[in-house]
Amino acid sequence: MLYSQLGMTEPMRQILDLHIHSKYSRACSKDLELPKIAKVCEIKGIDIISTSDFTHPKWFAHMKECLVEDTEGIYKLRSDIAKVETLSASGISPYKGEKILDVSKTRFVIGTEIASIKKHKDKTRRIHLLVFAPSLEVAEKFNNTLEKRGFNLKSDGRPILGLTSKEILELMLETDERMMMIPAHAWTPWFGIFGSKGGYDSLVDAFEELTPYVRAVETGLSSDPLMNWRLSALDNITLISNSDAHSLPKLGREANVFDFNSEKDIAYDEIKRIIDTGDKKKFISTIEFFPEEGKYHYDGHADCNFSCAPEETKKYKGLCPKCYKKLIIGVENRVFELSDRTLDEAKVAGEKQIPYKSIVPLSEILADVFVCGVNTKRVVETYNILLKSFPNEFFILLEADLTKIADVAGKDIAEAISRVRSGNIFVKPGFDGVFGVVKVFQDREVEQESLDL
């Protein structure tokens, strides 16, 4: 795939989404099954995706049934499952039309998310961790280790383990030193490694002498690399970005762009090496949410529909001015608390780091243009029209010629995509579990509000 917006010119450049969920995780869509995931990856333009949830017995059985090894440690759907299919109105929103898809192109890496909840250093720590295995056999060995210790792996695709993050890492290394741990959505208040509610102030605080084995963190939807560059302690830590999708339409809302030398080079060990070393020749960029759209960006109190920037939180002494309960401290505030660089200094430091490009999902762009919901008939129909003319959603968002987009779907949509590419948008920041609201055409929001009055 070629995406010039990301400097992509070679045919072996691949888009990776390394954090999703299955239908066995709580609050996740029942459509999250491997064949359907592969189909939507083709629609979105995702080349390699995590299997997710490999600790869950039923999901692991589904993985073993559906997957065969393609290259070393990388899997694909079995040939009898991955036949060319017609995707029709099967509940895979937002795509409801018909399109011939070769789902055999989608590759899978064996990965999952685990919740660590355990008192450590006089505080209960609640951390979500991404865990990767170099093969199905190693994943099964790790699962067996957890079961022997009495952990309930059946209740949730993202199991809760009464172990510290360090203790889980120890078990992984004992199982196979090629296993990889990456703290998930690092700044999220409730379950981020740096989160305000149950996290740490540094990786060393969490992992102590095992810190060298943690070579990356996931930025999460509510932060982007620029925010993370404000913390010099992360200069030698690779920043990755993934969708954390709980439904099919959310796949690829954040992702990573890697460069491989050949098909054979697309292997687990090479992916791990690129992440471990932060190889800037191979790790081309991350694809990001605008962080304000994330649901923990600002401080706030959802019950009172109140949010504010960090400086206002100080003015309110950390209390909601409506009910006087404690505000949930968001990602921007927590980054500011731990940072040792100004924003300008972070921009300079970032010149030596892996770059990034921020996007807005295509269905959200269309909804904004049409001033309607993302699942409305007009959005779905226009999404389908665009897909018939272009290879996939990422191509449309990042690469497609704007003139051709205008010819296919109209000048307003081409202008909206142009604004997103240049960052010329407005986002009302998310807070306390409430997603932010993206407006590509801010003036339309004002116009609509005046009509409502």
Q: What features would you describe in this structure?
A:
The protein is of the alpha/beta class and 453 residues long. The protein folds into 2 domains: 4-293, Metal-dependent hydrolases (TIM Barrel, Alpha-Beta Barrel); 361-452, no CATH class. Helix content is 32%, strand content 19%. The chain is built from 16 helices and 19 strands. The protein has helices spanning 34-44, 57-66, 136-148, 165-175, 203-207, 225-228, 268-277, 310-315, 331-338, 343-350, 362-370, 377-389, 393-398, 402-409, 411-422, 442-452; strands spanning 13-17, 48-50, 67-71, 74-77, 85-87, 99-101, 107-120, 123-133, 160-161, 180-183, 216-218, 238-240, 255-259, 283-289, 299-301, 306-308, 356-359, 426-428, 437-439. The strands form 5 sheets. Strands 1, 2, 3, 4, 7, 8, 9, 10, 13, 14 and 17 form an 11-stranded mixed β-sheet that branches. Strands 5-6 form a two-stranded antiparallel sheet. A hairpin with an 8-residue loop joins strand 18 and strand 19. The protein is globular. Residues 84-93 and 445-453 have low confidence and may be disordered.
